Amino acid sequence: MRGRVLWIHLGRIRYAEAVDFQWKLHHLRLRGETEDLVLALEHYPVITLGRSADPRHLLADPMALLARGVEVLPVERGGDVTYHGPGQLVLYPILNLRSWGKRIRWYVWALEEVMIEAAGSYGVRAARIPGRPGVWVGNEKLGAVGVYVRGWVTMHGLALNVDLDPDGFRWVVPCGIHGAGTTSLARLLGRSLDVWEVEGRARAAFAEVFGVRVAETRPEEIGAVIAG
Hints:
The protein contains 7 helices and 12 strands. By secondary structure, it is α/β, with parallel strands linked by helices.
């Protein structure tokens, strides 16, 4: 057991707000003014374009999407184009990998493993596919990973499809992979599923994979640290 990681439940927030929050926490973690932590949340509908995004993988006009309430935003994380929306569990760890003595390749593997174990707790057998980031059930993507690391401190993270409207993915070529579909835990289980129930399973999986004690912390406590 390495120690503890703070776990902050943010609920549903806009993507830009989450990125701003991450940057503030990233600066604090880089200076050693806060502990390692994880933000747990879901987003309002948004399509994000990573640093290696191919514009052809966005299949709808951004203005038409905005009229439907779907934002299109460039982001600093790695990867291509992806969709986030209600019913998808998103985890953004802010970790100092240098203090862990770990490399980015291991970190990506660990995030995938968290999703595999969380899905496995429901009897869903997710797996990695060589050359394809994220976790899969057959040829359908269940969860995505997209990270950004600066000064060995992480941002962004993982997105696990729990019970979301699949229509959001028809506007993109998910992660730039043609011919691959997407799925969710709810679809695989044949029943509705609450995102925050799955958050509890993911929190337990994170503690196991990363070998830490997870301590739940109220958002206002972290906000006070940022404001201070």
